[in-house]
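Supplementary Text 2. Reproducibility record for the structural model of the 65-residue chain.

All settings were left at their defaults, and a single model was retained for analysis rather than an ensemble. We include the record here because the model underlies the residue-level annotations in Supplementary Table 4.
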Amino acid sequence: MAVEFAPKNVRVNAIAPSANDDRPRAQIDGRNAAIDKLAASHLVGLIEPEDIANMALFLPRTNRG
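Retained model, structure tokens:
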């Protein structure tokens, strides 16, 4: 979409988080081997939900013309 709308001066961004540290879920069912394996396959491991929120807040500031 970014390439398609660039000629119209429209910027397109997306946030596509993968493995995140969902503490309430982890507290309920303890450590999950599948989640640990998924986290190990990502360069940064598990991200915090706050990281996703901060990115959502950051993007509008960077897109002001």
